[in-house]
Amino acid sequence: MGISGGRQSERINRLACCLLMAGAFSWLPASPALAQDSADGFRSPTGNIQCMFFDDDASIRCNIADKTTPLPPRRQDCELDWGNDFGLDETSRRGVLMCVGDTIVGDYPELAYGETFARGTISCVSERSGVTCINGRGAGFALSRARQRLF
């Protein structure tokens, strides 16, 4: 039993529309977390904090999944995810709380307590108390379940 001519034509039109839409947006660049060929980052031993280093702009972004502190007030210009991602680049004067629409959560190697992850002038140390990332200027952030601090 075949599909009637009208239904088959309708399906073909839908497929053509979807293919046209996919082609129309194919020129958009991938999101920063997906644009990099390989994931260069780490996770804390508990897995609560995950960080990814971006070669293209020498920056690091960390996500903290669980925390006991309330979210800070959302920036007025942020309509995306807020309060769990922190960023820093080599020229930052202070770490930043990021407004993001993508994720860096992935399958990163563990950075054991007492070990340091370093790329360029950015280094992050994993301790039982949390993860601290700092650049050569002394700017950065410290993350733990109990406290998130920008400096």
The count of helical stretches stands at 2
Q: Regions with pLDDT < 50 over 5+ consecutive residues?
A: 1-37
Order of helices and strands: HHEEEEEEEEEE
Mean pLDDT: 82
Q: State the share of residues found in helices, binned by percent.
A: 10-25%
Strand order of the largest sheet: 1-2-3-4-5
Question: Over the alpha carbons, how many angstroms does the gyration radius reach?
Answer: 21 Å
Q: Characterize the largest beta sheet: strand count, sense, and whether it forms a barrel.
A: 5 strands, antiparallel
How many beta strands in the DSSP annotation?
10
Oligomeric status: single chain
SS-based class: alpha+beta
Query: Quick one: overall form?
Result: globular
Distance between the termini: 69 Å
Percentage of residues in DSSP E strands: 25-35%
Show the helix and strand layout.
Blueprint: H1 5-24, H2 32-35, E1 40-43, E2 49-54, E3 59-64, E4 81-89, E5 96-100, E6 116-119, E7 122-127, E8 130-134, E9 140-143, E10 148-150
Antiparallel strand pairs: 1-2, 2-3, 3-4, 4-5, 6-7, 7-8, 8-9, 9-10
Can you offer a commentary on this structure?
The protein is α+β, with helices and mostly antiparallel strands. The protein contains two helices and ten strands, in the order H-H-E-E-E-E-E-E-E-E-E-E. The strands form two sheets. The chain has a five-stranded antiparallel β-sheet with strand order 1-2-3-4-5, with no helix packed on it. A hairpin with a 4-residue loop joins strand 9 (140-143) and strand 10.
Name the descriptors.
151 residues; alpha+beta; 2 helices; 10 strands; 34% strand; disordered N terminus
